[in-house]
What we know:
By secondary structure, the protein is mainly β. 3% of the residues lie in helices and 46% in strands.
Amino acid sequence: MKKNFLSIISLLLFQFGFAQGLSWQGYFSFNEIKGISESSTSVFAASENALFSKNSTSNAIKTITTVDGLSGQTISAVYYSPSFKKTIVGYENGLMTLINEADGSIVKKVDIISKQLAANLKKINHIMEHNGFLYVSCDFGIVQFNLTTSQFGDTYFIGDNGAEISVKQTAFYNGFIFAATSSGIRRANITNPNLNDFSQWTLVSAGSWLGVAAVDAELAVVNSTGNVQRYNGNDFTAFLQLPSAPTGFHVVNHNLLATTSGAVSILNNQLAMTRQIFNSQLPEANLTFSCASAVGDILYIGTKEKGLFSTSLSNPGTFENSTPEGPFRNNIFSLDATPNVLWAVYGDYDTYYNPYELDSYGISKLNNSKWLNITYSEVYDAKSITRIIVNPNNEKQVYASSFFSGLLRIENDIPNLLYNEKNSGLESLTFAGPNYIDVRINGTAFDKTGNLWVTNSRIKNGLKVLKTNGQWQSFATSSILTDAEQTNYSNIVIDKNNVKWISTSSEGVIAFNESTNTFKKITTGADAGNLPIADVRSVALDTKNQLWIGTTKGLRVLSNVGSFQAEGQMKANPIIIIDDNLAQELMYEQFITSIVVDGANNKWIGTVDSGIFMVSPNGQETKYHFTINNSPLPSNVINDIKINSTTGEVFIATNKGMISFKGIATGANDDLNNVYVYPNPVRPNYTGTVKVAGLLDKANVKITDIEGNLVYETTSEGGTIEWDTTAFGNYKVSSGVYMIFISAQDGGETKVKKVMIIR
């Protein structure tokens, strides 16, 4: 029963977030353009799993993300229907969504996903409209869709003997529908009522074809080598060789735009080349073109790295970037958040801590809704940057951990030093030989005196500290680990006694007390620490001095970090909850990637495939469980979680984009001087909650109407409470001014605020 109740709550939150856009916010990258479509006034660009449009007259840019109702799946095609004023989005998994321009509503169609076909055959490659029908090209064939009824029609398997065949693009020409497929150009009479009969489709030209397009009286096709051919009524003849294989083949304004990775070739309606635009002409070098379109005389070019560029179609010269602001990419691996800024890094490693994709994506910073992206060349070519931390004593100083190149220092947003094996106490792993340099820095934490502690994986002296005086010191983790040179470290936290708690890949949690130079360990086995597995991916300290331990096989809690001082073995225990009258272990068998504690001592727990959980301070109540099915999460793969302690915004980084949840996860204040109420006034169209922020912990909050009648009372946990604007949940209160009386737990400090409600 409890599980069903939570599901209902999650669904309500999901609907509220989508309808109001108040609880959730998206922070997506729009840099990798997957497709472009256009209307007479706007261009529509699809990135990995988000859309944006730009009005060519007003230059207004509008974005649509999972927060608005899009799927987090990877987009593979986009088409705007001018006659129906709908944007149609196709996905690699076969999902199709329709976005109604009039009201912004989004309808998801899962018919292709539901087909009894192999999952890798359902990708939507192209969408073509003719007479109110869409012809959706997929990796198995063509599916017809009625735009009037919003229903799918027949499916055409047009391969030999009705076999599945990958259809890359379709075009309508002289009464026929032509299909460019992986095994030939095929055509059929579009008025034929039996197009689902493969025998009605004629093979016009053999070969592997990637595009087909009708330009007024001409029909052109392009194959996988970039050879462009025209139709003479019976066959195709070559007339143009593109520099490489096409990435786009699109007709607009009586022009054919043939895009390759390095050039856009513009052909008129007689298929004569009028101009070519090369990526070398853009202000940023070595960009990869993915597609192109035009609105009037404005040419838009999509790239894989830096979004959408525009220039004059008739007289190309100056190029303008028209991409909405965002991080470098969606797959954010790690974050750090302060009250003022958010930092994001993209380096990663696989389940076995293998970093050998060795990415080169740089670092991103969000400040006042503006993104600053520091490029790979600016970070001294540091690869696989897996962690980032802001100095709590100096917000302008930031350190980024590279799981290959060392430790990067950033000051005033400018990288200025890369610590490595040559200029610091950091060390390269040694098992690959003395000439191989690989400095694997990951977890970092500042202690209360301002020293920076870092983990240096797969060496004997795996714990390092950078002192405030610039000196380095090393500590031998080999004294506690069975095989330090094979051990990787994840994160590190430091408790109030200055003990360092470090998560390891194969030996559980190790703890180190600098003052006594003592290491201890919590690992598997009833007598050795009681972990379910020795692979620990996250440790977190809560406000009750408990250590929460996230492993690849579940959750454990050390009830008091002070037990480090005792002589006996420290032991962590599972949290047992009662669900459907059965005793169960909280987070049983879950691969936990991140644990963060909010201002009210709730725990936010990220998993590798089950989304994110928020549990009560003692873990007995699961308050939220967000997944792709009940929230705007673009993926159930949670890479990292961080919380802005001042605003309560919970940032959730997934492998397909970052979103935030605006709850009440704020830290408690030292006094009541900065209490504020929002929104204020509460307007008629607002359906969310009223929040009272800036509170002391355990503050008593009473809300009355203007006549003194009590309508709500609560005690704060952390720095914020919320009121659903009802009288103790019974009914919505009427319009008027409501008094908010706040007092400290000991009664020594009070504050009075007002909020106006307008129904």
